[in-house]
Write a structure and sequence with these properties.
- By secondary structure, the chain is of the alpha/beta class.
- The chain has helices spanning 31-39, 58-67, 86-99, 114-117, 129-143, 164-173, 196-205, 219-228, 245-256, 265-282, 295-301, 308-315, 321-328, and strands at residues 20-22, 44-46, 50-51, 77-82, 104-109, 149-156, 179-185, 210-213, 233-236.
- Strand 6 (149-156), helix 6 and strand 7 form a beta-alpha-beta unit.
- Helix 5 packs parallel to helix 6, helix 6 (164-173) runs parallel beside helix 7 (196-205) and helix 10 (265-282) packs antiparallel against helix 13.
- The model has no long low-confidence stretch (mean pLDDT 93).
- The chain binds flavin mononucleotide.
- Residues 23-28, 48-49, 80, 108, 110-111, 152, 182, 190, 194, 213-216, 236-239 line the site of flavin mononucleotide.
Length: 329
């Protein structure tokens, strides 16, 4: 009897087109924003990063669980964690696998923020590949019977120490099942262009899928990457903020070879208000409905509106969704 083929663990890599990932972006790619991106064509999404220890402490776990909340419609979803202690990372992954049952666990090895780096986590582990490997190995060992584990790295700590190929090989060797490579160094932060030559070198060197990330701004960038390279997934970051339509535009171009017209102003307003409503509903545990805390997220939507300077100024003072609706007129 022929053997039944095993179910793929990350099936989105088996489709005819490159899957589009929404990059995790803390403070922006919340539950409500992910709803929108999914509706506009993002294939795979990852929660913003949460420190592993937060799941292990009674005082912080409630908030941590809220941060990794998602709906079945948002699947396939990964939950991203960070930390430098293998046992705590494994324990957090174990609890997440049991309670949230995401499609995969993703380990963050890219965050450049001092409070993360000084805790020997995020991108600081790029300087210590043995420890980086130890963290991955502990997590994989603990949850691999239930879930695949992926990782997100930068190309290196600085220009003089680009080591993405070495680091990714180590990750592959301990059972990581896909690697997202952000083509900047830690030193670069978020400035300058991503180095796609290094991303492609990683894709060449590995057997597991590599997802390319960094400086994807337009449909043309996607066309170029798709023809030139071997990456098996594309991850879009800042250009998607306030602009979930980008996923629709990329999808359409990949399918038809043609460009879609940009969204109308009416659609953009509608989407911004819908975003505000879903976000507030998801935060109903808060005893107030003021929108101060979501102001930066809303401003991202107003970035390219006609008269956007004026609109952004108005957004500085609106306090409720009703007021926002009135700004729209
Ligand atoms: C505000 C902000 C928050 C971010 N938070 C995370 C995060 O939680 N986890 C992560 O792996 N990367 C995070 N990133 C990095 C992005 O996922 C992505 O790698 C980076 O923005 C490069 O892609 P881009 O050039 O398309 O923006 C963040 C980036 C920004 C701008």
């Amino acid at each position: 009897m022929p053997a039944t083929p095993a179910t793929p663990r990350l099936p989105f890599f088996d489709g005819p087109e490159l899957p589009l990932f929404l990059a995790p972006m803390a403070g922006f790619t919340d539950y409500a924003f992910r709803e929108l991106c999914k509706a506009y064509g993002a294939d795979v999404m990852v929660t913003e990063f949460v420190m592993a220890n937060k799941f292990l402490d009674e005082r912080s776990e409630e908030k941590a669980w809220r941060m990794v909340d998602f709906t079945p419609g948002q699947r396939p979803m990964g939950v991203q964690i960070f930390g430098g202690e293998p046992d705590k990372m494994a324990e957090a992954a174990d609890r997440i696998a049991d309670r949230v049952q995401p499609d995969f666990i993703d380990i963050n090895y890219g965050c450049p923020a001092p409070k993360v780096v000084n805790n020997c986590a995020g991108s600081s582990l790029l300087r210590d590949p043995c420890r980086l490997q130890g963290v991955a190995e502990a997590v994989v060992r603990r949850v691999t019977d239930r879930l695949p584990v992926t990782a997100k790295i930068r190309i290196g700590w600085d220009k003089a120490s680009i080591n993405a190929v070495e680091v990714s090989r180590r990750l592959e060797n301990v059972g990581i099942e896909a690697v997202a490579v952000h083509g900047r160094t830690k030193e670069q932060g978020y400035s300058g262009d991503a180095d796609w030559d290094v991303i492609e070198a990683v894709a060449d060197a590995l057997r597991i899928p590599v997802i390319g990330n960094g400086s994807i701004r337009t449909v043309d960038d996607v066309r170029r990457i798709r023809t030139a390279g071997k990456v098996q997934g594309l991850m879009v970051g800042r250009r998607a903020l306030g602009n979930p339509f980008l996923f629709r535009e990329i999808k359409h171009a990949l399918l038809t070879g043609k460009d879609l017209p940009p969204p109308t102003l009416e659609e953009r307003w509608e989407v911004m208000l819908r975003y505000g409503r879903v976000l507030l509903a998801h935060r109903e545990q808060d005893p107030w409905d003021r929108i101060n805390w979501m102001r930066p997220r809303l401003k991202a939507f107003a970035r390219n509106f006609p008269g956007s300077k004026n609109l952004r100024r108005k957004l500085e003072s609106v306090q409720t969704l009703e007021e926002l609706q009135r700004v729209k007129g």
